[in-house]
Amino acid sequence: MSQLVLPLEGVRLERDGSLTDRALRVLAAEPLTSAEVASRVLGITGGAGAAASAVFTLLGADPRFRVDTHGVWSVAPPPGPAEPGSARPLREESFVVVDVETTGGSPWRGHRVTEVAAVRVRGGRIEDTYSTLVNPERPIPAMITHLTGITQAMVADQPRFAQVARQVSGALEGSVFVAHNAAFDWRFMCHEMSLATGLTLSGRQLCTVRLSRKLLPQLPSRSLDGLALYFGVEIESRHRALDDAVATAKVLLRLMDLLEEQGVGDWDGVQRMLRRRKPRKSRKRKAMPQSMEAA
After folding, report:
1. Which pLDDT does position 85 carry in this prediction?
2. Residue 239 annotated among the catalytic residues of the structure
């Protein structure tokens, strides 16, 4: 079995390999339940028992993976001492906060990117930004134009994704991929990169929705609007890629402050916190009626 090396360094482009290689890439970003692994790696939805069985068949005997008592899968730590740099402080990590606007909700249904933005965060501050409109090579639905303000005329003379793929990959390379609802943006970016280059993205991901659920459980909503309001972050043009990405970057910095207040100072600490599950509430057993003979 070929061994796929998963460095802690950040996003990179590589060829899409076997199902176990795909599982390594997905689980290196975040722990997932059996149902989530089945959906994102095997394309199996529904039928929880069959999905779990398929995942165990694929990963159960592979020492590169581990599963806990709640059925949550993750990448097993390598044997021996930790790699140098794996415990560097979060503030020293390089993050790239990404936002994409699209023609719809799923790349598998033919939807494409209309705008992409990447904001690099390092050392507790925003370092630089990249953004571009993209010709999606398909019509933009009226409801999407109403939401984003991006019209067909605005993208007609803009580059196709294949023409900006090198610049986009350069903006992402070597950093932790961050987005608000990261699975959505990651899915579209992987699809567009695959169409443009034949390669897929690999590397660490961080979702500010998941992070805020752990750090701010008292908030009624962890939407970008809700978090921006809570932290006092202004969003100039909502549902435009650069403004949303900048707002998410500012939210990320505030969430990092909260992490440090809780004593979480490195990537491994963040992953341990995200893996923690709420303890199940114990159900009180109802008293069973006794027969007259037993009374």
Report:
1. 44
2. yes
Q: Domains of the chain by range and CATH?
A: 18-75 (1.10.10), 90-275 (3.30.420.10)
Q: What is the DSSP letter of 39?
A: I
The catalytic position among 111, 146, 180, 239 is 239
Contacts of 29 (CB under 8 A, 6+ apart): 177, 186, 203, 204, 205
CB neighbourhood size of 230 (10 A): 16
Mean pLDDT of 175-184: 94
Q: Which two tokens stand for residue 232?
A: 């006092």
Of 97, 148, 94, 101, the C-alpha closest to 118 is: 97
Q: Are 74 and 66 in contact (CB under 8 A)?
A: yes
Q: How far is the C-alpha of 121 from the C-alpha of 100, rounded, in Å?
A: 17
Tokens of 205: 């991901």
pLDDT at 36: 87
Give residue-wise pLDDT tens across range 139-165: 999 999 999 999 999 999 999 999 999
d(CA 181, CA 199): 23
Average pLDDT over residues 189-217: 92
Instruction: List phi, psi (to 5°) of 206.
Output: -140, 125
CA dist., res. 14 & res. 232, Å (int): 39
SS (H, E, C) 63-132: CCEEECCCCEEEECCCCCCCCCCCCCEHHHCEEEEEEEEECCCCHHHCCCEEEEEEEEEECCEEEEEEEE
Least trusted range by pLDDT, from 208-212, 272-276, 284-288: 284-288
Read off the pTM.
Answer: 0.74
Q: For residue 49, report the phi and psi dihedrals to the nearest 5 degrees.
A: -65, -45
